[in-house]
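User: Fold this; tokens only.

Assistant: Input:
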Amino acid sequence: MNILIKLLILIVLSSVCHASENLNVARVSLDEATRQILRESNKRVLGATTEIIDGREVHIIKVLTPDGRIQHYKIDAETGASIS
């Protein structure tokens, strides 16, 4: 009986550990993505939103550059990588 309980506990704990491997905790918030763009140079944010593009969450940040141009940056919400 004692071995059966230990085996059951081992199975439960290994399932919990395995489930936590699949959790994605490295997400980038819209605020973090916006700050990332602002750190690159002297730009003014005109707007920011999050959309689903091709099945993935993408932060779209609209900025005004120092020379007066408008640029749109797309940041993958899962990785924080810039999307061209």
